[in-house]
């Protein structure tokens, strides 16, 4: 995935250079190959998404339970559409309407990301509320420099909200990384569905950043947001 989006970003950055046309062509071919390869590797992910959906139905908190279960189910639908597109690309199902299935796949992926972001916002919101309550119950705030700073900011002001948000994300790296990854992943479906048009450079950059976050959470599991 990181290779695919790196090729997209590099080809966008150098495509205006007349002397680099061959390199741009090779990068786009490699990007296409990586995309096709990823579709094949994802054939088993539908089962993984369904197993994850079954697991998240056991979560005690209703909001994460709904968001993550619905996200995993829509992601499973996305993988089904993706598998159909793969069958089309390798010639096993030549009559498949590529645009229709691609549109369905993108919509499923988009909904899945929105549900993940809803879960992230829920995690942030209750931590915000918790932080506000902690600040209200602290004693001797005037003798604590750090507490003075927070106490001097009205929690109902925009600056106060952003200050607390910064502190929360700083203290919870898994939540920050999950939020960053989901926001970066949104660039692709937003562009494909015509909701917010960008360019391959932006999509490539966001894809590389998202992939690096994914690699980091695989290498360091403690940085992955727990379900």
Automatic annotation (TrEMBL):
Where does this chain mainly localize? membrane
PANTHER family hit by this protein: PEROXISOMAL BIOGENESIS FACTOR 11, PEROXISOMAL MEMBRANE PROTEIN 11A
Query: Where can this protein be found?
Result: Peroxisome membrane
Keywords of the record, alphabetical order, are: Membrane, Peroxisome, Peroxisome biogenesis, Transmembrane, Transmembrane helix
Task: Spell out the protein name for this chain.
Answer: Peroxisomal membrane protein 11A
Key word Transmembrane present: yes
Q: Name one Pfam family in it.
A: PEX11
Keyword hit for Transmembrane helix: yes
Task: Spell out the InterPro entries in the cross-references.
Answer: PEX11
Q: Which GO terms describe its biological process?
A: peroxisome fission
TM helices/strands, residue ranges: 201-219
Query: What Gene Ontology cellular-component terms does the record carry?
Result: peroxisomal membrane
**Which superkingdom?**
Eukaryota
């Amino acid at each position: 995935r990181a290779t695919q989006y790196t090729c997209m970003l590099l080809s966008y950055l150098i495509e205006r250079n007349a002397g680099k046309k061959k390199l741009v062509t090779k990068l786009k071919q490699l990007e296409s190959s990586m995309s096709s390869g990823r579709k094949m590797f994802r054939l088993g992910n539908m089962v993984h998404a369904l197993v994850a959906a079954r697991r998240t139905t056991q979560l005690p908190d209703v909001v994460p339970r709904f968001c993550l279960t619905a996200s995993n189910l829509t992601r499973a639908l996305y993988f089904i559409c993706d598998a159909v597109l793969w069958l089309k690309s390798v010639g096993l199902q030549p009559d498949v309407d590529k645009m229709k299935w691609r549109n369905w796949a993108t919509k499923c992926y988009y909904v899945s990301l929105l549900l993940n972001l809803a879960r992230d916002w829920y995690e942030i919101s209750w931590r915000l509320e918790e932080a506000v309550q902690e600040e209200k119950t602290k004693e001797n705030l005037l003798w604590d420099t750090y507490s003075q700073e927070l106490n001097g900011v009205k929690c109902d002001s925009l600056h106060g909200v952003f200050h607390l948000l910064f502190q929360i994300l700083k203290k919870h790296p898994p939540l920050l990384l999950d939020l960053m990854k989901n926001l970066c992943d949104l660039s692709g479906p937003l562009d494909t569905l015509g909701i917010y048009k960008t360019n391959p450079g932006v999509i490539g950059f966001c894809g590389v950043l998202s992939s690096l976050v994914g690699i980091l959470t695989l290498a360091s599991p403690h940085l992955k947001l727990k379900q």
